[in-house]
Amino acid sequence: MLYNTLARRRETFRPIRPPDVGLYTCGPTVYSTAHIGNLRTYIFEDVLRRTLEFNGYRVTHGMNVTDVGHLVGDEDFAEDKIDVAARAEHKNPLEMAQMYEVQFFEDLKKLNVARPHTVTRATDAIAEQLEIISRLFAKGFAYQDEFAIYFDTTKLTDYGKLAGQELQEKRVGARAEVVVDFGKKNPQDFALWFFLAGRYKNHILHWPSPWGEGFPGWHLECSAISRKILGQPFDIHTGGVDHIGTHHTNEIAQSEAAFGLPLANYWLHGEFLILPDKRMGKSEGNKITLQEVIDRRIHPLAFRYLVLQTHYRQKLTFNWEALEAAQRGLLNLWLQVDTSRQTAKIGCAEYEHRFRVAVNDDLNTPRALAVVHEMLGSTYPWSAKLQSLTAFERVLGLGLTPTAERNHFVPLDEAANRTVVGLITRREQARAERDFKTSDQLREQINSVLKKRGYLLEDTSEGPKVVPTIDALTEG
Ligand code: AMP
Ligand code: ZN
User: Mind listing the pLDDT tens digit for each residue in 461-475?
Assistant: First the structure.
């Protein structure tokens, strides 16, 4: 079952051509570093993809990268985010965009978010976008004035169906004061193409078109790129909840009008990550980046773990204490996993069943994590638990097996384990004999083996303990 925004209810997922599934994700606007709110949405989409694969589907995942045309706010003639940032940074817009794009994919990698199979930049799909405009003109859905080409929303009977908005409501909602182009017929009409005129006279990026030199409106790229990668209609379209009212509504309008076919059958939206008082936004000036998380010596996967603890359709109020608690929880899980090595042929069937039911219930990751914890506390042998964890890891991506990807944390292999255990025994002996010089030397020796794997030796009231810690890696 998946919650389909378009149907406003949970539905059984039925792909168009099983076992193939076409999945499209709205990509980042690469005018600055992504914040952890953006990253929450990409983690949700990754869990969706992994859950589909877990159920045996063959997923083709496509995504755009917005490197032109995304305006600041919803006004028609606001500035282009890329253009503004490039001018402020004194950079060529495409070079700047590519730098932030590289950074974005590095962040995803650290979070174990799989890269989509095909990623297409808006500026690499101009021809496909112009083709849609041509069709819209031919079918009477487009009109132009000296500033832009617009989509005429009154020509569709079901404009706004995704958000459940009537045209009338949207018209009232659209802020009349920001409509500066008097050639635009209806406030809710949106631009398909901007000409190099008025505010955009000196827009850095522009391309020729049959109607005049200019650049595409933001919504058009996703219609063109999703169709190019996945065909039309495809199965699932995803994004954050802020896309429902305008961006996805307009994608649907122009794609369906141009081709006479639905764009996608299922529309899934991730709720926002917010700060205790307000939403986090690149434009709100209160963003937290993944680098800031790492600078606080918190492992990126601890953020992933925190995100999975809340259902994707619930708001997640971020605070550092919760993230630190998530890190303690995750490191503890890793330690448990790493100290047991043998995998049994058969896992813990009852827990595997409950896990599958949870993730298939509209991606209920909080419940799936509860199942993981219950299983770990059960009386099943460790070898069986480890076998089940291998299956769970395919969906969760939290580094829950000794061989899983943990961004530099390397599990202790048998040989290292034996060396460390031997050295710890000798050190305990030295300490008992009050030979602190030898004991200190041995400690250093132990830590040199442990550190490169992301562990440290800690003396606790219950004796020496090997603990996973991000400090081990950042201390060099
Ligand atoms: P953008 O780079 O602004 O185009 O946004 C990239 C993705 O992040 C989109 O899917 C947005 O819906 C999503 N997004 C933006 N802000 C937040 C937030 N505070 N929490 C969760 N997702 C967000
Ligand atoms: Zn999009």
Answer: 878 888 777 776 665
Residue 380 DSSP SS3: coil
User: What residues flank ion ligand 2 with Cβ within 5 A?
Assistant: 26, 222
Atom of ligand 1 nearest to the CA of 66: 4
Of residues 409, 364, 391, the one with CA closest to residue 47? 364
355 pLDDT higher than 70: yes
464: left (phi over 0), alpha (psi -120 to 50) or beta: beta
Name residues contacting ligand 1 (CB within 6 A).
26, 28-29, 37-38, 40-41, 66, 239-240, 242-243, 272-273, 279-281
Q: Who has greater pLDDT, 225 or 77? A: 225
Secondary structure element (H or E) that encloses residue 294, with its range = helix 290-295
> Which residue's CA lies nearest to atom 6 of ligand 1?
28
The whole model's pTM is what?
0.89
Which of ligand 1's atoms lies nearest the C-alpha of 316?
20
Q: Kindly state the tokens that stand for 209.
A: 């078109």
- Range scoring the smallest mean pLDDT among 1-15, 408-422, 438-452, 455-469: 408-422
Instruction: Give the Cα separation of 382 and 340 in Å (integer).
Output: 7
Among candidate residues 125, 3, 19, 151, the one with its CA nearest the CA of residue 63: 125
